Amino acid sequence: MSEELFHTEDMTIEDFLSGATAYEIADNALKRVLVKRKIAFGTMVSELTERQLDLATADIYMWCASTPSSKNDTEDSDGGWRKGVGRPAHTTSDNYVKWRKNCMKNGMKKL
């Protein structure tokens, strides 16, 4: 039994996954999800099953849950050159991480 989805407006899987969260999804993370799920780059969402979309979306949520929500880079400059000072500080709200992991788990429960 096919679970194919039919949409009035179609989009690529890359656009679909990038729109799943407010995070800017790194290209290497997006590629990793597509390779892991054996989905070709540029595949239209209408060509995929609901299960494929849910699994790929859950993978994106998992990536987001492990990504810092903010980053603080410190730079020093002197006359025309710039140098990063110290290590960047990363912060992620515990509640936000829990929320993102819960989104991923709920997506997996459907499967």
Polypeptide structure, described:
- The protein has helices spanning 13-18, 27-36, 50-65, 94-109, and strands spanning 70-72, 75-78, 81-84, 89-91.
- It has 111 residues and is an alpha+beta fold.
- The strands form two sheets. Strands 1-4 form a two-stranded antiparallel ribbon. The chain has a two-stranded antiparallel ribbon with strand order 2-3.
- α2 (27-36) packs across α3.
- It is globular, with a radius of gyration of 18 Å.
The fraction of residues in strands falls at 5-15%
Query: Counting H and I runs of at least 4 residues, what is the number of helices?
Result: 4
Strand order of the largest sheet: 1-4
Beginning-to-end CA distance, first to last residue? 15 Å
Structural class: alpha+beta
Number of DSSP strand runs = 4
Computed over alpha carbons, the radius of gyration is: 18 Å
The gross shape turns out to be globular
Give a nutshell description of this structure.
The chain is α+β, with helices and mostly antiparallel strands and 111 residues long.
